[in-house]
Amino acid sequence: MADAFIAGARGAGHTVEKIETASLDVKGCRACDGCYRGGRACFFDDDFNGIARAVLEADAVVFATPLYWFSFPAQIKNVIDKFYAFVAGGKEFKGKECALLTCGGDTEEKAFDGLVRSYELIAEYLGWKDRGRLVAAGVNARGAIGETDGLMRAEKLGAEF
């Protein structure tokens, strides 16, 4: 879904940077309040500091994630938790746009309610404008998204962004 969204966005002339949190070393926030001390977003030197630069420079942030136990997976949740650094560090980034792309094996969309509500609260708290949400239920096996209209909808959302 992320790649389909990116194809649509690039086709519309947008510059896109894809950050795959699952392959990065982002430790959980320790609430140490060391944010932006020493010239970096997080006092602890992990991959979040590069993500923080990208988020601050971006006009929009798109969360593309599978559903794990009715919420965000730990890898992307660690990144979201460290968004605290922006608030504690006095970084102004209201007015960004955002979107959510998610899929999961559960066939009932209500299984996604927790993740979607978390996304809504994150956007509201940060002052970001929600540009859309794409939920693809019943997508469990790798590649199963191709058997749905999820990729087409993701590309369309990217093109309209």
Automatic annotation (TrEMBL):
<keyword id="KW-0288">FMN</keyword>
<dbReference type="InterPro" id="IPR003680">
    <property type="entry name" value="Flavodoxin_fold"/>
</dbReference>
<dbReference type="InterPro" id="IPR029039">
    <property type="entry name" value="Flavoprotein-like_sf"/>
</dbReference>
<keyword id="KW-0285">Flavoprotein</keyword>
<dbReference type="InterPro" id="IPR051796">
    <property type="entry name" value="ISF_SsuE-like"/>
</dbReference>
<dbReference type="Pfam" id="PF02525">
    <property type="entry name" value="Flavodoxin_2"/>
</dbReference>
<protein>
    <submittedName>
        <fullName>Flavin reductase</fullName>
    </submittedName>
</protein>
<dbReference type="GO" id="GO:0016491">
    <property type="term" value="F:oxidoreductase activity"/>
</dbReference>
<feature type="domain" description="Flavodoxin-like fold">
    <location>
        <begin position="2"/>
        <end position="142"/>
    </location>
</feature>
